[in-house]
């Protein structure tokens, strides 16, 4: 069935009352959320150890709910209130843990903690078991929430460094969660994972300039737009010209460096993790090539990776692991 988030919020939101499910039922719910949104998960799940699939689905469902609470509830104070409720639900997985210091926005910080959550949401029932099984700390989950809140408070960025700060919350925690699920997290792998995840986030920003502008967000830093003579009025008009072409292709070039550095992670991973991570990295690089193929025109239409390209990426990743 198509995903109707308003209906899901009525069933399982803060005003729904307790509806505790069994762990198998909660995992089935997370599987449904994943399959209804993430078209590539079917392929990715073939490559995962079967025991890991429900845990990846629980993590994805947590992220999906957080994303929709931010983007599908009207934004502003309403979204911020719902994200705070979601944080409370998460902290129940840690037994109402003590407050944790987090970055929140380009130059601010705050502390968060438990606010009497019910803890009966199906996603959190499933996620609680994943957290316990893999000893995942709360920071990656909380940092993701900080990024969704940052989107409500800071829709524009002045500098590339500020944008990288956003990626620290919005993208890099996902890589950390993957490392925890494969039971191979350490500081060195986390740094290399951050390069890949930051590259993926930046590639997505450049792919979605027009779509994000329609949501009131500009991830192209002001200093970069000023350097190449691209204005907000031009983005609003979706006017593609040589100035914008030069800007976006420059952003593509410096994004590619993150993937080049991050690929050093692959030989450090357990064998069962390598193909999936290779696919993520190769997919981000394919987005950059798609932008270049269009000459940098991401304003009049969105560059996409076709099914044939995805199949080639999968084949290349599999062959790379089979033959070293």
Descriptive tags:
mainly alpha; Farnesyl Diphosphate Synthase; 2 domains; two-stranded antiparallel ribbon; 16 helices; 2% strand
Written account of the structure:
- The chain has 324 residues and is an all-alpha fold.
- The protein has 2 domains: 7-136, Farnesyl Diphosphate Synthase; 155-324, Farnesyl Diphosphate Synthase (Orthogonal Bundle).
- It has 16 helices and 2 strands.
- It has a two-stranded antiparallel ribbon.
- It is globular.
- It starts with a helix and ends with a helix.
Topology, element by element:
Elements: H1 5-12, H2 23-37, H3 41-47, H4 53-71, H5 76-92, E1 100-103, E2 109-112, H6 122-134, H7 139-153, H8 160-170, H9 172-181, H10 187-207, H11 209-214, H12 222-228, H13 232-237, H14 242-262, H15 271-293, H16 307-322
Antiparallel strand pairs: 1-2
Helix pairs in contact: 2-4, 2-6, 4-5, 4-6, 4-7, 5-7, 7-8, 7-9, 8-10, 9-10, 10-14, 10-15, 12-14, 14-15, 15-16
């Amino acid at each position: 069935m198509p995903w109707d988030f308003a209906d899901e919020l009525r069933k399982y939101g803060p005003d729904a009352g307790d509806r505790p499910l069994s762990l198998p039922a909660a995992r089935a719910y997370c599987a449904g959320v994943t399959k209804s949104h993430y078209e590539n998960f079917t392929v990715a799940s073939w490559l995962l150890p079967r025991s890991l699939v429900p845990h990846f689905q629980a993590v994805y469902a947590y992220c999906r709910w957080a994303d929709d609470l931010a983007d599908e509830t009207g934004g502003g104070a309403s979204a911020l209130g719902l994200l705070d409720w979601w944080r409370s639900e998460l902290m129940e997985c840690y037994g109402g843990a003590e407050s944790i210091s987090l970055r929140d926005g380009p130059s601010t910080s705050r502390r968060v903690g438990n606010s009497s959550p019910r803890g009966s949401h199906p996603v959190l029932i499933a996620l609680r078991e994943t957290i316990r099984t893999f000893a995942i700390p709360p920071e990656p989950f909380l940092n993701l929430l900080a990024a969704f809140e940052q989107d409500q408070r800071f829709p524009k960025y002045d500098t590339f460094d500020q944008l990288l700060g956003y990626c620290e919350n919005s993208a890099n925690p996902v890589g950390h969660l993957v490392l925890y699920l494969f039971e191979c997290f350490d500081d060195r792998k986390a740094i290399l994972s951050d390069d890949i995840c930051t590259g993926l986030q930046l590639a997505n920003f450049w792919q979605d300039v027009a779509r994000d502008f329609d949501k009131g967000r500009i991830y192209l830093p002001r200093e970069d737009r000023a350097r190449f003579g691209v204005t907000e009025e031009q983005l609003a008009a979706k006017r593609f010209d040589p100035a914008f072409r030069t800007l976006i292709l420059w952003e593509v070039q410096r994004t590619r460096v993150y993937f080049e550095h991050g690929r050093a992670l692959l030989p450090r991973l357990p064998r069962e993790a390598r193909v999936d991570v290779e696919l993520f990295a190769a997919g981000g690089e394919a987005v950059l090539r798609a932008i270049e193929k269009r000459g940098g025109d991401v304003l009049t239409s969105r560059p996409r990776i076709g099914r044939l390209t995805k199949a080639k990426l999968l084949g290349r990743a599999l062959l790379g692991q089979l033959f070293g």
